[in-house]
């Protein structure tokens, strides 16, 4: 039986495809594309993974593109010559009759795709599942909006918010499945950021443990770390920033085109980022256990009244093994309401 896809189902699948490019596309966005026939039958799909754009991958994957075909794309097709030709030209040349995209391209360099397609006689519909597509592409959108990478702080704590016991023990608070999920998160980031204090205390490796590509590892701080530290091995590139100035981090990250930085550190370093208004998202793993005393997950923020609190919105809650995984994004009141 031939499956006929609705417009919403086609775009939802394109968003799923886009997610497969996480960690592979910087400085470009993640994008997914799906082509169906005029009657809704699946033809092909593709996603951007650092070379050809999603639309071109989907077009090249099609054995044929019959008259009246529709392409669903998570981001407005680009209209400029960069490392690859404009996607609008590929769509026009393929004879596609209709383009449906989720989110408009805010990058002025690539904008204008929809207008060009319409001027070429192609029907264009914008905004289908826009918020869902924008959320998945939030790292790149943050970089465009704020001229810096999106910074996500990963915390693993007890239910009473402790990351270590009174004697400093912290391995392991969360379950093996939760730690595997963290390894997958690393593979989706462009870089992992930690502090010299964390390297000296825990000697972390900070790789994806074979679950995907290893991100660039960044160690920040003025204290010397041992030459034989695991984080300096050959599994991945490691950049050491001998500074406490976060602008040095931002400058280096922008030079490299990073979209997403995942922070894995202790509470002092993470709180410093939070106080500097550089944490856009927190992924909190909470184990169903209590310490009562010990090291809190966040240090003193200097908040004296409830009006000074830092609000985040709960974007997702999942159960990973025995643990909770809570995704928190900066509250709309602090973040312009977009992502």
Runs in which pLDDT lies below 50 for 5 or more consecutive residues are 333-338
Radius of gyration: 22 Å
Task: Strand order, main sheet: write it out.
Answer: 10-9-8-11-6-12-15-14
Mean pLDDT: 93
Residues in β-strands, percent: 15-25%
Shape: elongated
Helical residue percent band: 25-40%
Query: Using DSSP, what is the number of strands?
Result: 15
For the termini, the CA-CA separation is: 39 Å
**Which sequence of SSEs, written as H and E, runs from N to C?**
HEEHEHEHEHHEEHEHEEHEHEEEEH
Biggest pleated-sheet summary: 8 strands, mixed
- DSSP helical segment count: 11
> By helix and strand content, what is the structural category?
alpha/beta
Write the layout of secondary structure elements.
Blueprint: H1 7-19, E1 32-36, E2 42-47, H2 54-61, E3 70-75, H3 87-94, E4 98-103, H4 113-119, E5 123-126, H5 130-136, H6 138-146, E6 150-158, E7 162-164, H7 176-187, E8 191-195, H8 196-202, E9 216-220, E10 238-241, H9 246-256, E11 260-263, H10 267-275, E12 281-287, E13 295-296, E14 312-320, E15 323-330, H11 332-335
Parallel strand pairs: 3-4, 4-5, 6-11, 6-12, 8-9, 8-11, 9-10
Antiparallel strand pairs: 1-2, 1-3, 7-13, 12-15, 14-15
Helix pairs in contact: 3-4
């Amino acid at each position: 039986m031939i499956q006929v896809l609705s417009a919403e189902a086609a775009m939802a699948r394109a968003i799923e495809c886009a997610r497969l490019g996480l960690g592979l596309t910087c400085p470009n966005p993640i994008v997914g594309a799906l082509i169906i026939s005029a009657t809704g039958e699946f033809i092909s799909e593709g996603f951007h993974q650092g070379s050809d754009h999603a639309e071109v991958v989907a077009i090249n994957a099609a054995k044929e593109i019959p008259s009246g075909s529709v392409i669903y794309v998570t981001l407005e097709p680009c209209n400029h010559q960069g490392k690859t030709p404009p996607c609008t030209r590929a769509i026009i040349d393929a004879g596609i009759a209709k383009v449906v995209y989720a989110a408009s391209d805010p990058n002025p360099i690539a904008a204008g795709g929809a207008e060009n397609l319409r001027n070429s006689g192609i029907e264009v519909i914008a905004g289908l599942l826009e918020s869902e597509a924008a959320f998945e592409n939030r790292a790149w959108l943050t970089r465009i909006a704020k001229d810096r990478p999106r910074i996500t702080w990963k915390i693993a704590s007890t239910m009473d918010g402790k990351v270590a016991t009174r004697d400093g023990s912290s391995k392991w608070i969360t379950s093996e499945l939760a730690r595997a999920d963290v390894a997958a998160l690393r593979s989706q980031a462009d870089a992992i950021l930690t502090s010299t204090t964390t390297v000296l205390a825990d000697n972390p490796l900070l790789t994806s443990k074979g679950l995907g590509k290893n991100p660039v590892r960044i160690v920040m701080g003025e204290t010397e770390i041992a030459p034989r530290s695991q984080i300096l091995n050959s599994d991945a590139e490691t950049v050491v920033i001998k500074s406490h100035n976060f602008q040095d981090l931002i400058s280096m990250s922008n030079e490299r085109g990073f979209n997403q930085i995942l922070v894995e550190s202790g509470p002092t370093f993470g709180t410093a980022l939070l106080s500097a208004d550089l944490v856009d998202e927190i992924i909190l793993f909470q184990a169903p256990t209590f310490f009562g005393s010990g090291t809190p997950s966040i240090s003193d923020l200097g908040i004296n009244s409830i009006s000074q609190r830092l609000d985040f919105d709960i974007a997702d809650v999942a159960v990973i093994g025995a643990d909770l995984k809570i995704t928190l994004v900066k509250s709309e009141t602090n973040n312009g309401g977009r992502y």
